[in-house]
Structures are given as C-alpha cells and as structure tokens.
Design goal:
- The chain is mainly α and about 130 residues long.
- It has one domain.
- The protein has three helices and no strands.
- α1 packs parallel to α2 and α1 packs parallel to α3.
C-alpha cells in the first residue's frame, strides 16, 4: 500500500480540511515527485509534512502547497477530465479538497500506464535473443 491509496476523494459537505490532510497530500507530492524522477522527470518540490492541529497555515505556505501540486499536475499530460487546482486555499470547499487529491491519484495512474506501455510496445523484450 502506498500513500496514494490513502488519498481521500469522496468528501461530502461539512467536511473540514485539516493538518492530517495537508500532511497526507504533502507525502503524496513527495512520493510522486520521486516516482516521476525515477522515470526521467526532474521536479523540485518541498512539501511540508509536519503540520499539527495547532498550526495556522499562512497564505504563503498555502501558495507553496498549491505550487507543488501544480508542478506534479503539469509534469504529465493530464486527461481533459482532470480537475483544476483551486485558485487559493482560502475558503476551500469539499469539492476543491477532493479535486486536490484526485489530481494526485490521476497522476499516479498515468505513471502506471506509462510503465505498462513498454510491454504493449514490444520494448519489454527488445534485444533479447
């Protein structure tokens, strides 16, 4: 089980976004950046993963948070159905929170497809005698 398996994309109205959500998304950003690097994409992200319930996120920290997410989202060509990032974290809705974590799941799925395409392209056994 990876951090991607813990992402939440089915929040409903009245759900709050808290430190555990910020930390989970930060861990997923780090994981995806490492996975993308392994596939030849160099992405510089520095997600904060030590939020506590007593922290009060600053606007600059949230802008950085969204900036790291945007770097992950923009690395691979996303399907047209991939949600956009919220413009800001101020007044984040449950649908915006779902969109954030959906983007990460979709990016992970795209990487899995990239890995499997070598088999379908015949490159898996290329050069073997």
């Amino acid at each position: 089980m990876s951090i991607i398996d813990t992402l939440i994309t089915d929040r409903t109205a009245g759900t709050v976004y808290n430190a555990s959500d910020l930390n989970r998304v930060g861990e997923a950003i780090r994981y995806l950046a490492d996975e993308l690097f392994d596939r030849g994409y160099e992405i510089r992200v520095s997600p904060k993963i030590d939020w506590t319930e007593s922290d009060i996120p600053l606007a600059a920290q949230m802008a950085h948070y969204l900036g790291d997410l945007l770097k992950i989202r923009d690395t691979l060509t996303q399907p047209p159905t991939t949600p956009s990032l919220p413009a800001t974290m101020a007044g984040l809705t449950y649908t915006g929170a779902n969109d954030i974590e959906s983007i990460l799941r979709i990016t992970d799925t795209l990487m899995q497809w990239m890995d499997s395409i070598y088999f379908y392209a015949g490159d898996l056994f290329a050069g073997e005698v």
